[in-house]
Specification:
The protein is mainly alpha-helical and 275 residues long. The chain has one domain. 67% of the residues lie in helices and 0% in strands. It starts with a helix and ends with a helix.
């Protein structure tokens, strides 16, 4: 028993350490971008966002400790019957005949399409209480990507990874999709006043995603894609009237601290059940 607990503790410690290292590299990149883009204003902006950043960091490490282990188990359990009973739409030998670069691009593109519709569902009344936690950051930075309620994080990854698994994408392509979406997600959440010029017709920019977090579109929303803006353009949810200078956050009473935000979805669902 003691050996099992020791191994569990060592595994958790390694996960936290690895996550902290990855976080440090992201911090180096985005802090440098902020200083280059905003110069002296970047320091003032960081000070103003300090309280929100602390909440985001708490959710980040809760995710590492509470969500990643069961998620790894669930995704493995989903893959086993899909492979054993050949439920995949495209079999592994067909992927092997395609160029790796094409498989990679298809995984990210199809993954973003799945994510677009999953994200729209998260803005419906039943799923919104958990997703509202992500939107509650009023000083959006690249670390806002870390603010996900554990339930929302688990369902998000299960849906996204599960759909790509059923389609039959190779495991390496699914991992590549998750990696691209994670780091591109940090980029579009960053406090950067950037569009992508001609590429706005294809890719999501920080300005485009900032409008998704605007308080006045909470509950219905726009700009649901993470990587490819083509999905919002195709299904009529693209909205970028100009630079986003409106207040961010939610009108829901989610509370300011990590603990209150962890409890909020359950209280909201209980209230919905009584109506």
């Amino acid at each position: 028993m003691s050996d099992t607990l020791l191994r569990l503790f060592q595994s958790s410690a390694r996960s936290v350490w690895t996550s902290a290292q990855l976080l440090a590299w992201s911090a180096l990149v985005f802090c440098t971008l902020a200083l280059v883009t905003k110069r002296g204003e970047a320091v003032a902006a960081a000070r103003g966002a300090a309280a929100e950043i602390r909440v985001n960091l708490a959710f980040y490490f809760l995710d590492v400790l509470l969500v990643v282990p069961p998620l790894a188990l669930v995704t493995a359990l989903m893959a086993m019957p899909a492979q054993r009973y050949s439920w995949q739409l495209v079999q592994s030998d067909e992927w092997a005949r395609m160029p790796s670069a094409l498989v990679f691009l298809l995984a990210v593109f199809v993954g973003d399409c799945v994510s677009y519709w999953r994200h729209r569902l998260e803005h419906t009344p039943l799923l919104w209480p958990a997703h509202a936690i992500h939107h509650s950051d009023t000083e959006m930075t690249w670390l806002t990507l870390a603010r996900f309620h554990p339930i929302n994080r688990l369902t998000t990854d299960v849906v996204d990874i599960g759909c790509l698994t059923l389609i039959g994408f190779p495991e390496w392509a699914i991992v590549a999709n998750v990696t691209v979406r994670h780091y591109y997600g940090q980029f579009i959440h960053a406090d950067l006043p950037w569009t992508l010029g001609p590429l706005d017709g294809v890719l999501v920019s920080p300005v485009m995603h900032r409008w998704h977090h605007a308080r006045d579109v909470t509950g219905t929303g726009s700009n649901f894609a993470t990587v490819f803006s083509v999905f919002d353009r195709l299904w009529g949810t693209y909205y970028v009237p100009g630079p986003c200078t409106v207040p961010l956050g939610v009108t829901d009473a989610v509370g300011p601290g990590t603990l209150r935000q962890l409890i909020y979805p359950f209280a909201a669902w209980f209230k919905l059940s009584r109506e």
